[in-house]
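Hey L., structure's done. Input below.
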Amino acid sequence: MSNGRERKSLRERAKEIIDVTAEGGISTVSEVFLEGALGAVVPGATSVIFSYKQKRLEDNLLRLISELQNRISIIEENFLRMSPENQTLIKDFFAGLICDYVIDEQEEEKIRYIANGFVSLTGQETLETKETIIYLDILRNLRMIDLRILFDKDKVILYDGNFSEYLISLGIDNDHYRMCREKLLRQGLLKSSYDDEYQKIVKKVNDLTDWALSFQKGKVNKLASNFASFKPKDRENISLSKLGRSFIEFFSVSDEIE
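Output:
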């Protein structure tokens, strides 16, 4: 039986978001997502009974549309500057790629980062498919708390004297923080000073091996004058890697709230 009020389709609900925020004309978000990728992902989507996964899919896609509309001016500006070939690539490939990652996202708050990534894409002269997929794969493996810690590193937030206060602001304990940091290290977003120290030690060992072999052959190679001066550091220093910096740059476009 009908209760007199049918559930609106995902397309209708998304269109309402775009219509409310648009100032006339066809929005780039509508052109790229509503008429393209979104329709392909959930054609129809008018069933009255929705599973949990279907509801999350809808909520996530609507959140994406909303986040993109909040950045519509910069998206429009970037899109108009793109070559026709890149505009087509955005509509035919990258829009669908973005939706694929949005659909399965467990933390809805992370979708604003994905929206920022789309803005970054529209601002690129050369669209890098593999690089974009790597960034999105890494983002999928991170939780919001991981991103908070990573972005705090980029802001050079100092907490040596009040680390306990910093943990309180994060809402986690020291063990949880270490787990997050280890995850960021495994993803290649952070780097340890011990990695550089290890490479230096390996070089010293190789140099010493070469010297010993040359000594056996009667043609002694000279060791570097500073060979014995190297001393590994006792304290580990964690910093952003090159990948970490480019990852942050890709996902940290300033939000445009209208």
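Strands lie at 190-192, 238-240. Confidence is low (pLDDT under 50) at residues 1-5, 44-49.

-- N.
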